[in-house]
Amino acid sequence: MIARYTRPELGRLWTDEARMENWRRVEIAASEELGDSHFEGGFQHATSTTPPCNVELCLVFDDVASAYERAVAAGASPLAAPEVKPWGQTVAYVRDAFGTLVELASPIG
After folding, report:
1. What is the pLDDT of residues 68-93, one digit of tens each?
2. Which domains does the chain have, with CATH numbers?
């Protein structure tokens, strides 16, 4: 599997619109085959049908609901809709095309 993104596409998904305008259009490509080549025996492949791995990427947003909607619209698989946790932080979860667990969270405090 190969995922291709341009920096502006990533910007629309993970940064605010003002910062996105300053990004140059540079293509980024990643492949599972390339990842496998780095390690003898390859790496553990995650998919949308397997349980998430024991690692998550956390991205912090002031508006988690909006970030969640944009991530799902861009192709991420929804796992848990935004929810306010007992400690006051809003948290949501999605998985990217490679099965990576991504937490979308508001700042703590």
Report:
1. 999 999 999 999 999 999 999 999 99
2. 1-43 (no CATH), 44-109 (3.10.180.10)
Q: For residue 68, give the 3-state DSSP assignment.
A: helix
At 55, list the tokens. Answer: 């690692």
> Which pair of tokens denotes residue 91?
């948290």
Coil/strand/helix, residue 24: coil
The H or E element containing residue 69 is helix 64-73
Identify the burial level of 67 via C-beta atoms within 10 angstroms of its C-beta, where 0-12 means exposed, 13-18 middle and 19 or more buried. Answer: buried
Sign of CA dihedral 61, 62, 65, 70: negative
User: Looking at this protein, which amino acid is placed at residue 64?
Assistant: V
